Amino acid sequence: MKTFFLHIGPYKTGTTALQVFFAQNMHALQARGITYLPLGLIDQARQGKITAGNGAFVARSLLPSGHEMSLANKRKAIFSDLQHKLQSLDTKAALLSSEFFCDVNRTDMTRFKDFLSKAGFQLHILMCVREQASYLESYYIQRVKRHHQTQKPVQYFADAPYKTIEHLHYGSYAENLGKIVGQSNISVCRYPQENIFDTFCNMMGTSLDGLSIPDRQVNVSLSPENLAIMIELNKFKPRQSISDQIVASEVVAQGGKKSEKRTILSPEIRDQIRTYFQAENDKLSDLAFGGAPCFTDKDKEYADLDMIRDALDIQSIIDLFGGLVIAQEDRLSRLENTVRKLIKP
Q: Going from the N-terminus, what domains does the chain have, and what CATH number goes with each?
């Protein structure tokens, strides 16, 4: 049987960077016997954009009809296209990637495995895990960036919403996947401790040598200072492009590199999260890492958003809104030039 590599994320584990990497190295991977299936928004991924991977539509078609991202009503057409791609495959392995797969329930994942088996493929799952407190911090920041979140971390995590996120219960999650595909058909790596590009190549039986790594960061988080400002701006329901421009301005101000050394989660919240997930991480340690600790993250300095907001200086405001004004001016200039060309006699 051929191998079907399925990268399931989960979210917040470098998935966008990996999907850009897969798309940009599509031809090189194919020459090595691995076809990154030509599905989804491949061209956008090559440009470094967020796409949720070439498997986004396939994964969404497997989500229940009540899920906000479900494409269950288009499953037949989506799977017909996938089957056609598999029938014409001329390599020993296929690769499909989307973080949406981590939300697919066990019943539908089993059906997907059976579909692949009938097509002559052995399903092999690739997943990356991230220390849950770090994951949840990044997830919270994403909600501020994309979903108009106005609650501060203390308010947001007060009811422990993470308890219902199945794929964060890593040990049980990996164990249940093993019951579907066999534990030997699951490969797990740790983010960000490992070089995800090198590790994923190794998990697929190839190497990073000769492949290109994305030359810029994608889906970057906001700094605590700009996060505090964005929370206030969210009261006005801004477009998502605003947060992207804020991040872009920040990266430029820092000389092109963005690496946050602080955390917006208080020590109390981090300890609460770690205590809750300890047993799950111990189970994953035995399943995937030979008993070695899953995570060795060092605690970062705590950045209290309320204190940061109150202490913002005029230079920080200028750096932020100066970049926004320039970005909007460039955008308006391009629009005006396009209009002139369209109406030019």
A: 2-131+166-203 (3.40.50)
